[in-house]
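Predict both folds.
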Amino acid sequence: MTAVSAPDSPLLHTRDARGVHTLTLNTPGAYNVLSEAMLGALQQALDEVARDNAARVVVVGAAGKAFCAGHNLKEMRAQPELAYYQRLFAQCSRMMLAIQNLSVPVIARVQGLATAAGCQLVAQCDLAVAAEGASFGVNGIDVGLFCATPSVPLVRNMAPKQAMEMLLTGEFIGAAEAQARGLVNRVVPANDLDAEVERLVAAILAKPREAVAMGKALFYRQRETGIEAAYQLAGQTMACNMAHEVAQEGVLAFIEKRPPAWRRADTGGDA
């Protein structure tokens, strides 16, 4: 395991020999809020992953009892200017979109409270694994601030009326309910959280990087288009994927009843 960030950084960034990047929000005393420093550190880390041609998976976790309590309200209150708020939320939106734009899957490892922009971070990740005691909310409305930016990925994770109820009431849901609503994939006892994340990571690493990258890009692009355009885009993506050597080898291996000899891209050196 190679450390990429300094140990006193608000975000700890490590990379293992498999190309798995782990980003750990590291301000537990402040409930890992998305301060300007945290947003900058996350953006820098995601940019580094994007430049790593041997990257395979990103895991986003947090230190302490809370996963992330959203934006730093003290910072926001200290600069009550529209221009500042516009810059802040634009910075946050760039970071959230960077997660989607990565060619590798991003998994949220949620061990505790995820609220407001912290819940947004979970919703923005491609996959999420939560401990049984984790809770989720978009409770900005409690202080008169509708969680507008968190609503963007939230309504793309769960049914509209379920998302709207959370946004309008500020009420929290537990991990089991979050799974039932589609916000997280798996819920396990806290002691099993790392093992469950690793099982998901291992399942992704067993697949060819090229197909995963094509699939992730297609998944999000087709979601935002009409159905006819989505099918055209999906058909073109499948054709390109099928013409690629990893699919050619995979299909041949299936026909010959043997394991595929994937051309692995996850054996590169440390970043």
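Second protein follows, with its predicted structure tokens after the sequence.
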Amino acid sequence: MVTTAQLYTAQVVHKRLFPKANAFHYGIYYLVLPLPAAPVPGRFASFHREDVGPRDGSDPTPWVRNILAEYGLDHKTQHITLVTMPRVLGYVFNPVSFYFCMDESHALRAVLCEVHNTFGEQHNYLCANPDHAPITADQWLEAEKVFHVSPFLNRHGNYKFRFDFTADTLGIWIDYYDADQQKQLVTSLTGTLAPLTSQTLQRAFWRHPLVAMKAISLIHWQALKLLLRGIRFITKPVQLAQRTTATRNLNKI
């Protein structure tokens, strides 16, 4: 269990399997913050609470707990750890932030994935077992895809999620299956944790400079490559009213 702020240094891997194969990977770093979390100051990289959750500057803990309570998971959650990209030189784009929800024995009970697209929209995927049992490191959890992210993937099909969170490592795997249940996209985020200090944060900044800008630039660069390869462009649909989607058979109370 993480009890103090950590720096997560990781590799992102994206693999598109069809209709035309495409893959890329890059280094990245995240902040790992036990909630409630104070702002993290920094000249180059920092954390601001208005970048996550309700995005109003308040601590995101009540926001997360309200979502958990809708599914009966709040009383199972003793500790919440936020994994999020920093704001870099005043700019932030966070494709996904993760809230790892642990019980009093430090077993993982739920993961809330806060997803943003490049159109300024936000949606949450709540991953948990239907019986609220602990999530194991080898377990895949499935949720319906209802949020438009890529203009080259339809807004239907399913995601499968897997999480492995230890004291010093973190692995996250998210695969996308189309409406015919064919695996089309494979993504992973894997790396190690170290104490977060002003020195380690500054070193991460220089090792991966402009990482927030890099993320958004790579999204558009990969989109251009797919477009030039003849992959059909899908116009963004109107966002659905539903703002949180739970994994299969996890029902509201």
